[in-house]
Amino acid sequence: MKNILILLFFHLSIIASAQEAKDVVKKADEIAKGKTSIATITIQTIRPTWSREMSVKGWTKGNDLSLILVLAPAKEKGVVFLKRKKEVWNWIPSIERNIKMPPSMMNQSWMGTDFTNDDLVKEASILEDYNHSFLKEVTIDGRPCYKIQLLPKLKAAVVWGKVIMDIDKKDFMMLHVEYYDEDGALINTMHCTDIKMLGGRLLPAKMEMVPANKKGNKTVLLYTSLVFDTPLDGSFFTTQNITKVK
Questions:
Q1: Where does 2-236 sit in CATH, by number?
Q2: Alpha-carbon distance 101 to 105, whole Å?
Q3: Over the stretch 182-202, which tens digit does the pLDDT of each residue have?
Q4: What are phi and psi of 154, to 5 degrees?
Q5: Which residues of the chain are modeled with pLDDT < 70?
Q6: What single-letter DSSP state applies at residue 150?
Q7: Deepest in the core among 7, 94, 103, 200, taking most CB within 10 A?
Q8: What is the tens place of the pLDDT at every residue in 27-48?
Q9: What is the C-alpha separation between 227 and 71, in angstroms, rounded?
Q10: In the chain, where are the structural domains located?
């Protein structure tokens, strides 16, 4: 009986720890997104011999609805990405086509950057598609953080085989993220800096995505504005609206 009680206590402790880890990730996700968000972002793609800059505007509503509009450069201006739950569409104005993106494209580069399509439109839910567990406590840029491991659930259709997140213990900011493939190899590392008030919240204004096996390559996201909790109707995030958004 004693052994059974010990095993039961151990099992319940694991469940409680997993829930607490998920709660930390959920809080960080909610702070970064709000009920809705509207952001303007500059994206710098840096390579050993060249670099390019892009400006985008993004709208989100919860975890199921998001839309990204490319503002510049002129060649890509007007390109739109729309996500509704697990479905993603891409409007290309130059050919006047609205293309539904298959799941197989989620791990491909988004607009030539080091971010994947999945990273930008967040098709995979970091809350629902993964199991969460605490690894240890670490310090990132002088800030005490939780190190949390995310492993995909058995039948989850996700890009990554494992994700490791470092989340600030005080303000619940996601400061460092490592993305691994199914074989456990590190693919990308994202580091978040330039912490400031954005939309009335303390958040990193700069995110750098660095691929593990491509020396000299990185993509930098710079938030130029961020507004939370502006009412957005669900009809905004539709294929009917995708050709009209400005």
A1: 2.50.20.10
A2: 7
A3: 999 999 999 999 999 999 999
A4: -50, -45
A5: 1-19, 120-124
A6: E
A7: 103
A8: 999 999 889 999 999 999 999 9
A9: 18
A10: 2-236
